[in-house]
Structure formats: C-alpha cells, structure tokens
Amino acid sequence: MKRLFDFIVALCALLTLLPIIFIVTVLIRIKLGSPILFTQDRPGLHGKVFKMMKFRTMLDATDKQGNQLPDDQRMTPFGAFLRSASLDELPGLLNVLKGDMSLVGPRPLLVQYLPLYNDEQKRRHNVRPGITGWAQVNGRNAISWEQKFNYDVWYVDNQSFWLDIKILLLTVKKVFVREGISADGHVTIEPFKGSSSE
C-alpha cells in the first residue's frame, strides 16, 4: 500500500508541479549554468546504492589549484532560496517513481557514512529512504546527528500510513516556515564522523 501510495502521489505531484519545475530549470540554467540536476550516489533500502537526483544549487567554483571551493563559497542567494523552499528536492519525485525512494522515510545520506554507523543506526536502512521524514519535521539540519538517527530508527519501528500522512502535512508547514534548513556555521549540517556510542 505504501509503494502504491508513493507512486500515485509522486506522479500527481510531478504533473501538477510541471510549470514550477520548468521555471526552476530555466532559472538554474541562467544563474548557475549546466548541469541542471545534481546527482549523487546514496545508500537506499538495505544499503543498496542508487543515484539520487536534486536540482543543482551551487556553483562549480574552484581555487587556483583546481580544488572545489567549500560549500559556503559556492552557494549563491538563488541556490539558498531553492534549498530553503525545498524546490531543489522536486527531482526526487523521479526517484520515488523508480522505487529508489519513498515520499517518507529516513533521508538518504552519503555513502561514506555507511562504515561509521553503529548497529542501531544501520537500522535506518531497513526501509526506503524518503524525500522527507520524521527527523526532517523534528528539526531537519538544526538537530544533532544522534537526534537525527534516533528519529530515523523510531520511524522504522513505528511507520504507518497515518504517520506518513502526518509527516507529509508537517513537511508542508515546515517548508512555509523554513525552519532547520542548516546547522549553525554550515550550509546544511556538519559532516558525520561516527557515533561516540555503540
């Protein structure tokens, strides 16, 4: 039922939001250049790696040695707006249609974090990752990694259709309020370096 719900809602959302997706695509091409989409390997259900899609929000700026500049130096006001309004997440609906992601679930993190999880944190991969999730509506990037993982595992143990509906409604509210977009001193959140507890 969850997979069918995800597919129908994602398809309807894509069709409804096509004008906005077109406008965002054109603006990214003008303001940031190509490519329009940002794709990155992320671990999904049971840790299986897939290509997650988002709208690009940063410049491809490098230093004199050709090294990519830090995120805060590549982020533009336009890119920050896309993130704060969660418009950069719209291509993720294609990941939902493909079955790589769900509308609701733990957010897919970086592949390099996989060896850093303790046994409890690994349980976040027992469900499909989501465009939004319990951690996102309870602080997003403004909470600690420990809190984020606790929320993710709680969702795995308590998932239900009605909980997903609640999270989706809370997500709409969070998008308008624009809370928890980034951690203090970071464009999003500081990198995960492993848990202090096993």
The strand line-up of the biggest sheet is 1-2
Structural class: mainly alpha
Q: Tell me, briefly, the overall form.
A: globular
The low-confidence runs, each spanning 5 or more residues with pLDDT under 50, are none
Average pLDDT, rounded to a whole number, is: 88
Q: Mind explaining what this structure looks like?
A:
This protein is mostly helical. It is 42% helix and 10% strand. It has eight helices and four strands; from the N terminus they run ααββαααβαβαα. The chain has helices spanning 2-16, 18-31, 71-74, 77-84, 92-98, 119-122, 145-158, 161-177; strands at 37-43, 49-55, 102-104, 130-132. The strands form two sheets. It has a two-stranded antiparallel ribbon. Strands 3-4 form a two-stranded parallel sheet. A hairpin with a 5-residue loop joins strand 1 and strand 2. The longest helix is centred in the C-terminal third of the chain and has 17 residues, at 161-177.
How would you summarize this macromolecular structure in one to three sentences?
The protein is mostly helical and about 200 residues long. It contains eight helices and four strands, in the order H-H-E-E-H-H-H-E-H-E-H-H.
How are the SSEs ordered, and which strands pair?
Elements: H1 2-16, H2 18-31, E1 37-43, E2 49-55, H3 71-74, H4 77-84, H5 92-98, E3 102-104, H6 119-122, E4 130-132, H7 145-158, H8 161-177
Parallel strand pairs: 3-4
Antiparallel strand pairs: 1-2
Helix pairs in contact: 1-5
